[in-house]
Every structure is written in structure tokens, then in C-alpha cells.
Amino acid sequence: MLSLFALTALLAVSCQLSDETEGYPSYEAPLLSWTSDKIELTEGNQVQKIQVPIALSGTNLNNVVVRYATRDGSAKAGSDFIAIEKGSLLFGPSNREKTIEVTILADQLKEEDEYFELIIQEVLNGKPGTIQTLRITIRNDDFSPIDFISVPTGGTSSPKTYTGYKLVWEEEFEGTTLDPQSWTYELGDGCPNCGWGNNELQFYQRENILMDKGFLVIQAKKERAGSKDYTSSRIITKGKREFQYGRMDIRAALPGGRGLWPAIWMLGANIDKAAWPACGEIDIMELTGDKPSRIIGTAHFGANVAQHQFRTAATFLNAGTFSDAFHVFSIVWEKDRIRWLLDDTQYFELTPAQLNGQAYPFNQPFFFILNVAVGGNLPGSPNATTVFPASMIIDYIRVFQVN
User: Fold this and answer.
1) Residue 168 and residue 135 share a domain
2) What pairs with residue 89 in β-bridges?
């Protein structure tokens, strides 16, 4: 039985608690949600770790625990991101925002933009807010500049074997950069003999070379560089890939347009000693853009510039232009004889008898040159109808020599 004193004390405490809590607001659990309903990022070429913020709002009188996970969308765990199956975070009374680390995986595949989701599964001592699912979009950046070039899908090709010959060099342009064991860039405006000896209008630079998907692309562009109003690229195999005799097959598509001058050609490897034209020049293919259905095959020779001579021939397509489809440009080169072929059909031949007593410089090693010139003595200058950028697209170079 309570004593009178104890009963009086209990009644007093009860009255005091009633007076203090009267009108006090009821406690509401804090809300937990993502700070945004979406995140977008670029895939890149390396693994990325991103920090995703998650926020708590309201009064936090206890420790709040959130459990979260990832969920596949068009992006898949293991190939595009690292899955989170049972993630958790603890918010103490003083915490209002934390981050969750998400790992994004990179690849070099051209694909569509993809997404996956980060979801709040459960909140202890709190409750989910209005945004419980966060979409993470991975923007694809694995595109190739060649995707924006019109690469022909048809045309002529050539075999990898010929009776009596063996394949001694095959350049298929795999990968995305030139093989430094085979190729060297020639750069600049050709000074001190500016214009590369032909009053050409382009400045050669590395940036105009594109390589991907088994193609080499040399682009001529209308842009200022050095003292020139156009840029392009010129690459050579001098000192790296030099050949004496053989069959050379080059599969390519060529740009047309006034003032454009794509070329696939060779110079004598002794040019540093003998100089041009005594070293000899074999133009396997030249095209002037004003005649986009015609190619020219030429041989240059002479003891010096004053005695320079050349022998040349041209051939035309029956229909279309050389930019519409791939064609194979070839020479079959033997001692004292060179034959020029288009799609395995001969249209020109050179022998020492045609040099009228001049020295015949074509029985020695030569190296390759690929370039697209702009303007100059042969094609004339571009005009308003010339479309830039203009692309010469090389599929392969194959060199065969007699067994």
C-alpha cells in the first residue's frame, strides 16, 4: 500500500510531465532520398569511380540505416558497371548527406548510350523520400572519326596470291595509329622549295591522318596552318619499306573536286644523293579532282631538273567516279619494264627505249608516298564547288615479289 507521502509525490510528477508535453509536436521519421533523379556521365577509356550523393531531411534522433543496390537497365553489371547487391550506409544524428561509390567500366566498343539504376531498398529509423530510384546514364564516346566519312561498300578487290609471286609486305592499316616501323610523316609547306616544288597550297600535318576499321584516311581540309589556307597529310616509307621490283596493289577510293590532287607514288631510295628527277619517280596513281573519273600513271626521270622528262598515260572509268567505289591501282615492275594497271587491266607500259637516251633510274629500290595535295601546277586551285574535307581512303597496300 502506498503511503500518503508517496502517493502525493507520484501525483506531482504526473502533473509536471503533463504540463511539459502538452502541445509538443509528435516525432516524424526523417526522409532519405537521392539528391537528383538522374546522373549522366561520359564512359571514357578508363575505369571511373563516381560518388553519388544521398541526403537525409527532417529530424534524426536515431541512427538511420539505408540499404541500397544497383539494378541493370540497358547497361549490364559486369560489362558496364560493377554491381552493388547489398550496400548499406549509417547516418548518425549529425549526418545529413553521404555518398555512395559506383564503379563505371570502360570499353572501346561503339554502342548506344546505356543506363542502369541505383535503388533504395530499405530505410531503418527513417523512411524513403519521393526519389527512391536514381538513373545513371553512360554516354558512349567510342566513336571513330571514320564513322563520319562516307566509306564505299563496294568496288574491286585483288587476291592475296599470284602465281610465281610471294607476298613480302602487307599493310592492312589495322589499329588506330600508323606503324612507325613502316611510316614517317612529312610535315610542313615544303619550304625552302615552298609548295613541294609544285606551288601547292596545303600544309602537311599529322592531324589529317585517320586510321580505324582497317582503313587509312588522308583528309584535305580548308583551314589555316602555317602560311597555307589548306591542310592535308603526306606519309612515306623511306628508309623503312623500300622495294626493288614486284607487283604493288593498292586498293583505294579517291576524292574528287576542283583543285584536289590525291596520289599514290614512289621515289628512288637514293634521292638524298641523286636528287630529283635523277632518282626516278613512279606515279602509280594520280587523280586531278576536276576529272574524278580519270587516273594518270606517270614515270619521271632526267639527269637534273633542267633535263626533266616524263612519260604518262591516263585511263577512265566507264561510269561513275573514283570516289563511288574502291578500285585497285597496280604496277607490275620488272627489270627494264614497268606496267600500270587499273583493276588488273593494263593501260600503260614503260621500258628504257622510251627514255630517248636518258638514264633509266627504275632498276633500283624505291619507297612509297601517299598524299592528298591541294592546288598547284597540275590540278589548279580549288573553287566554290570543291567540298572539304576531302578524303582519300586506303584499304590496303600489298607488295609481291617473284619467288
Assistant:
1) no
2) 66
What is the sign, positive or negative, of the torsion defined by CA atoms of 8, 12, 13, 18?
positive
Q: Is 84 exposed, middle or buried (0-12, 13-18, 19+ CB in 10 A)?
A: middle
**Residue 113 DSSP SS3:** coil
- Per the confidence metrics, is the pTM higher than 0.85? no
HEC-encoded secondary structure of 140-172: CCCCCHHHHCCCCCCECCCCCCCCCEEEEEEEC
Domain limits for position 99: 31-139
Residues 298, 282, single domain; the answer is: yes
Q: Are strands 97-104 and 48-57 parallel, antiparallel or unpaired?
A: antiparallel
Q: pLDDT, tens digit, for every residue of 240-258?
A: 999 999 999 999 999 999 9
Distance of alpha carbon 295 from alpha carbon 300, whole angstroms: 16
Block residue for cell numbers 531503418: 124
The C-alpha atoms of residue 217 and residue 205 are separated, in whole angstroms, by: 13
Which of 144-153, 258-267, 290-299 has the weakest average pLDDT? 144-153
Distance between CA atoms of residues 276 and 204, nearest Å? 20
Distance CA 84, CA 225 (A): 51
Res 12: pLDDT: 41
Q: How far apart are CA 190 and CA 198, in angstroms?
A: 10
- Using the structure block, give the residue that is written with the C-alpha cell 577510293: 253
Q: Which of 117, 114, 113 is nearest to 72 (CA)?
A: 117
Known catalytic residue at 286: yes
186 part of the active site: no
Cα distance between residue 285 and residue 369, in whole Å: 11
DSSP tag of 181? T
Average pLDDT, the chain: 91
**Are 119 and 222 contained in the same domain?**
no
Rg of the chain, C-alpha, whole Å: 36
Q: In this predicted model, which residue has the larger pLDDT, 197 or 336?
A: 336
Q: Where are the beta strands (DSSP E) in 199-308?
A: 202-204, 209-212, 215-225, 228-232, 234-236, 242-243, 246-253, 260-268, 281-286, 294-301
- Residue ending a domain, among 139, 160, 191, is 139
Residues 403 and 400: their CA atoms lie apart, in Å, by: 9
Please indicate, yes or no, whether residues 237 and 374 belong to a single structural domain of this protein.
yes
Judgement on whether residues 109 and 164 belong to the same structural domain of the protein: no
Among the options 242, 286, 334, 349, which is catalytic? Answer: 286
DSSP state of 43: -
Q: Which residues pair with 87 in a beta bridge?
A: 68
- Characterize 237-257 residue by residue with b for buried, 16 or more Cβ atoms within 10 angstroms of its Cβ, and e for exposed: bbeebbbebbbbbbbbbbbbb
Q: Which three cell numbers stand for residue 98?
A: 553521404
